[in-house]
Amino acid sequence: MKYAFFPGCVSQGGAPELYPATRAVADKLGFELIEMEDVGCTGAGVLSREVSDPINARTFAKAEVMGLPIMTICSTCQGVMTQANHRMKDDEYRESINRKYLAEEGLEYKGTTDIRHMLWAIVEDHGLDKLKEMVVRPLNGMPIAHFYGCYLKRPPELMVPKEFEKTRKTALEDVIEALGGKAVRSSGRGKCCGFPILTSNEENSLAMCGDHILDAKAKGAMAMVTPCPLCHLELDGKQADAAAHKRQEINMPVLHLPQLVGLALGFTAKEMNLQRHLVSTAPVEEWMAAEVKA
Amino acid sequence: MEVTLRVKRYDPETNGKGSSQDYTVDVDKDASLLDALIQVREEQDGTLAFRAGCRTGFCGDCTMNVNGKGAITCRTLMSKGLKGAKDGPIELAPLKQVKIVKDLMYDADTFHWAKFKAVEPWVEAAEAPNGSEHLMTNEVTQKLREAMSCTQCGLCDTGCTVIDVDKTFLGPAALTKAYRVVFDTRDTRTKDRLERLSMKRGMWDCTHCFEASEHCPKHIEPTDRIFAMHDEAIKNEAGPPSVVNHYKSFAASVKAHGWLDEGRLAIETEGYTNVKGLLKLLPFAIKAGMKGKRPMPYMFHKKRPGADRIKRIFDKWEDNGK
């Protein structure tokens, strides 16, 4: 499969471990990624849609010219783009954006671009059976809590529409199981991690983060996995603060989706940049090492 | 058809909580869940307390937790695949965010009215010109009409992840009410309202997670309403300094470089003169930096190849706004 790759800002900024891990894993899976370099940030739900819709329409138009679906590696990028693309289905709205913003660059968005998160690409394009066959180091029942990030789940009619219900509703759990792990269903799995309100209400943000991780821990998870680098910034980056806020030790390793896939496909922890996480991923590495010895 | 309701009961006089009671009633096949509850109260147990008003989905009063999820009981029909209607008890409990008065009856003051009152949901218009009427365009009226169809059932608040950790958060229901007046063109207090909504535990505590929109039975899209108020507040520079700084810095860096400058965002959110805030960033920056997370700010933040085109989009948008 060939994709117009939209890496997003965070995979090369605050979570720089994600970009190279994605590249390596995509290669292994046989995904050909043509990186979209001359496109803008999605707006992440912070920028007004009045300006982010034209920026996103420009990205969609460029992918349309390339004749490729866009692949994202961030639930937020995916959610914002899917919603913007949905608004572009309105011919009048799309045409007004073409006219006002894209025409002078010789671009026109016709409304045909498909945008797919890497998680969906793995499940829907690559296939779980094929993924299973490629596993060289099965996770051997490692209990892992899946954490989607809110933008990959909602609004459900756009993110998990009827025709994709079978593949998307449990995509992350299915990937964990295909890699030989055990998906742990925590109560926060589809909820907001707390990251968006870190600036406006740190206390609530940390309470949300702490509750989600502690619930995963209480249900037996020894690690968490997320397809969203913003969730990772919160669940890994702010975990120590959340632990202090909850007055409890947490120490929960949090992996990006490609990192977990990569480990099972034979990459080392270092190759997946686990050393760049703030919370030690040693338990995951120890589990994998024990499994290899066995 | 025979159905069993398993009701979570609470009696303030005996301070008894956590006990559940089963009631089995024979209801009409077209009955709603509320019909069944009323039947229980009339035929079996007059002490069972719950709220109900219009019985037609208008008043939002009979909302409760049904099988673990918020629902409007008068709109929940036994015949429409309700879990437990055929094979087992239907579990009923109060909504998670309410203060319980007795059984399923909640205190509406703390649930709705205190929060609604806080957003001052009445229009304050200037005197109409020359004694004529105030006119609103059809476009504006349509925008407000949907927000006005809110029945205040509170299901959006039930889904709210922030209310999960902080019951004092204003919440999507009250914020949808606020939208109704913020965008009313007759109202003269827009900026003042936006500043008021920026109160502690106010609109900036919303995470935009779309839970509220998913839970709204009337498809009013509370999340989009909150987005719209955030946009309006930033345009009016109304809001806590750190939030306004955050939004402005985000836009400025995307405008300049095509993509987000996270390092700059962290610094500018605190504000250049906010020494205490900037110092607060240091421990995390050092910790992250030592792990190789070093998003370099300002001139070190590489410009994207298409950055000039992105800037052009911003320029045009800003011109449109003038």
Give a written overview of the molecule.
The complex is a heterodimer of chains A (294) and B (322). Chain A has 294 residues and is an alpha/beta fold. Chain A has 2 domains: 2-117, Glutathione S-transferase Yfyf (Class Pi), Chain A, domain 2 (Up-down Bundle); 128-293, Rossmann fold (3-Layer(aba) Sandwich). Helices cover 48% and strands 10% of the residues of chain A. Chain A contains 14 helices and 8 strands. Chain A has helices spanning 18-29, 49-66, 75-87, 91-102, 118-126, 128-134, 156-159, 165-168, 171-178, 202-218, 229-237, 239-246, 257-264, 282-293, and strands spanning 2-6, 32-35, 70-72, 115-117, 143-146, 182-184, 223-226, 254-256. With 322 residues, chain B is an alpha+beta fold. Chain B folds into 3 domains: 2-106, Ubiquitin-like (UB roll); 108-235, Orthogonal Bundle (Fumarate Reductase Iron-sulfur Protein, Chain B, domain 2); 241-321, no CATH class. Chain B has helices at 33-43, 108-118, 138-148, 155-159, 161-165, 171-182, 190-197, 211-215, 222-235, 241-257, 262-270, 275-290, 307-321; strands at residues 2-11, 16-26, 63-66, 69-72, 89-93, 100-102, 105-106. A 5-stranded mixed β-sheet of chain B has the order 2-1-5-3-4. Chain B has a two-stranded antiparallel sheet with strand order 6-7. The longest helix of chain B is centred in the last third of the chain and has 17 residues, at 241-257. At the A-B interface, helix 2 and helix 10 of A face helix 5, helix 8, helix 9, helix 10 and helix 11 of B.
